[in-house]
Amino acid sequence: MSRPFPSVPVLSVSVLCHKDGSALLIKRGKPPYKDHWSLPGGKVEFGETLAEAAARELLEETELTAELDGPVEVFDSIQRDENGDILSHFVLAVFVAKNPSGTVMAGDDATAAEWVALKDLDGRITTPGTPARIRRLLSKLA
To answer: What's the pLDDT score for residue 7?
Structure first.
């Protein structure tokens, strides 16, 4: 089986940036989950801390900077093909970003970036578990 991704888990980060009852989502421009809405994030580079990777990915994909807390959650994202064979395996450390500054603009491999009200999360095609993760993590902050 040829595999488009590495045959080992890939360490990655996601950033839940929030303000005024909305969460910042990006539309993914590359597989896996191309054209799905997701939290900003990506792979951790060699020699980079998780927090450095989270700050870099937030800036690259949205043009925003923010205060980061975390990681607040770590989870596996495993994508399988129709036969059940593993296509990709990412281990994601999720950070929460508060007090964002800058003007949202999609960059890097994001094709769009938008503030989305919590009530509107379910109306979008998202990466698996994203709306529930956002609501769960934000409810812990309240």
So the answer is: 83
Model confidence pLDDT, tens digit, residues 56-104: 999 999 999 999 999 999 999 998 889 988 888 999 999 999 999 999 9
φ, ψ dihedrals at 141, nearest 5°: -85, -20
| Residue 47: domain span | 10-141
pLDDT of res. 32: 81
pTM: 0.91
Separation CA 8–CA 62 (nearest Å):
28
**What's the rounded Cα separation, in Å, for the pair 102 and 113?**
13
- Residue 108 counted as domain residue: yes
Residues 40 and 54: their CA atoms lie apart, in Å, by 9
Identify the CATH number of the domain in which residue 74 sits: 3.90.79.10
**Assigned domain for 2 exists:** no
Q: For the chain, what is the domain count? A: 1
